[in-house]
Amino acid sequence: MIKAGVMGWPVAHSPSPALHGFWLKTYGIDGTYERLPVQPEDLPKALRDLAAKGYAGVNLTVPHKEIALKVVDSISEVGRRIGAVNTIFVGADGKLSATNSDAYGFITNLRAGAPHWRPQAGPAVVLGAGGAARAVVAALQDAGVPEVRILNRTLERAQALAKEFGSVAISWDKRADALADANLVVNTTTLGMKGQPPLDLDLARLPVSATVNDIVYVPLETELLRTARARERCRGWPRHAALSGPGRVRRLVRTQTRRHPGAARSCAQSGLRLRACVVARAAARAAAV
Questions:
Q1: Is 44 exposed, middle or buried (CB count within 10 Å of its CB: 0-12, 13-18, 19+)?
Q2: pLDDT recorded at residue 287
Q3: Structural domain count of the chain
Q4: By C-alpha distance, which of 129, 138, 16 is closest to 66?
Q5: pLDDT band at 173; cut points 50, 70, 90
Q6: What is the distance between the alpha carbons of residues 87 and 23, in angstroms, rounded to a whole number?
Q7: Which of 51, 76, 259, 266 could make a disulfide contact with 94, Cβ separation 3.0–4.6 Å?
Q8: Domain coverage including residue 178
Q9: Confidence of residue 217 (pLDDT cuts 50, 70, 90)
Q10: Catalytic residue chosen out of the listed positions 65, 70, 95, 174
Q11: pLDDT band at 218 (very low <50, low <70, confident <90, very high)
């Protein structure tokens, strides 16, 4: 049996086990995908114990994506560039290799969910400076966004990230002003997530034509997205498609309701809408975690 899972702290909110459990069952793969709650200080040992416990690999979520860099044996080129990883593979020799598919997942979903968005149309504002923010900043730069503004509650982290990627760091207390001519806003923090403090962000200065993206998916529609939707012509939408999957490729699938009716029920049970679910079909078939 193939064992895989998602490590995080917290991790109870993750719908990945339900999503990937469905595809394992659909393709007749003898495997499991579990939630693995691991505190940050315990991550090195938890990763090193994967081989002994029979795991083929794991995905990483908050706050482990940067910490893992110091633990794994090899890192992909994209993982090194981003400075964070979200997928760990356990080799036959027990060695750990890591990569990052967050940037690909984010930009693919952004283009699919907001086809009106044009990267060259104006600056992007990224809230947060953690592992997810790193992937988002890299993806936006590669897409051709002329300026990426990074804001974090700890200014020093925003400045460090901005220096590394050639972006602009702005103080958290200036976040409302930073929206003045923005074409895109992305929240990569946990603010607004169920069980976490709310995100206090005044959208009054944000152009009504801007796109708003929130990587938080529990609740499905955050207060940030509700506020954005309420503004005339401002398109707010959630990032369901940047969830980590158990393989190398994650796809945004819009046609699975017709192809696999049972998937709709599986996703609904996780509080997600199938039209924007991420399913690693190719990866699941190969069971390559």
A1: middle
A2: 38
A3: 2
A4: 129
A5: very high
A6: 18
A7: 51
A8: 103-241
A9: confident
A10: 65
A11: confident
The domain that contains 190 carries what CATH number? 3.40.50.720
Q: Do 226 and 116 share a structural domain?
A: yes
Please check whether residues 52 and 174 belong to one and the same domain.
no
Q: Is 246 left (phi over 0), alpha (psi -120 to 50) or beta?
A: alpha
Q: Which band of pLDDT confidence, cut at 50, 70 and 90, is reported for residue 25?
A: very high
The whole-number pLDDT of residue 221 equals 87
pLDDT over 70 at 42, yes or no: yes
Considering the domain architecture, whether residues 193 and 85 belong to the same structural domain is answered as no
Reduced 3-state DSSP string for 122-158: CCEEEECCCHHHHHHHHHHHHHCCCCEEEEECCHHHH
Residues 11 and 75 in one domain: yes
What pLDDT shows up at residue 175? 96
Residues 159, 169, single domain; the answer is yes
Same domain, 38 and 107: no
The C-alpha atoms of residue 124 and residue 138 are separated, in whole angstroms, by: 12
DSSP assignment of the chain equals: -EEEEEEESS-TT--HHHHHHHHHHHTT--EEEEEEE--GGGHHHHHHTTTTTTEEEEEE-TT-TTGGGGT-SEE-HHHHHHT---EEEE-TTS-EEEE--HHHHHHHHHHHH-TT--GGGS-EEEE--SHHHHHHHHHHHHHT-S-EEEEESSHHHHHHHHHHHT-EEEEGGGHHHHTTT-SEEEE-SSTTSTTSPPP----TTS-TT-EEEE---SSSS-HHHHHHHHSTT-EEEE-GGG---SSS--EE-SSHHHH-HHHHHHHHHTT--GGG-EE-HHHHHHT--
pLDDT at position 242: 31
Please indicate whether residue 65 is annotated as part of the active site: yes
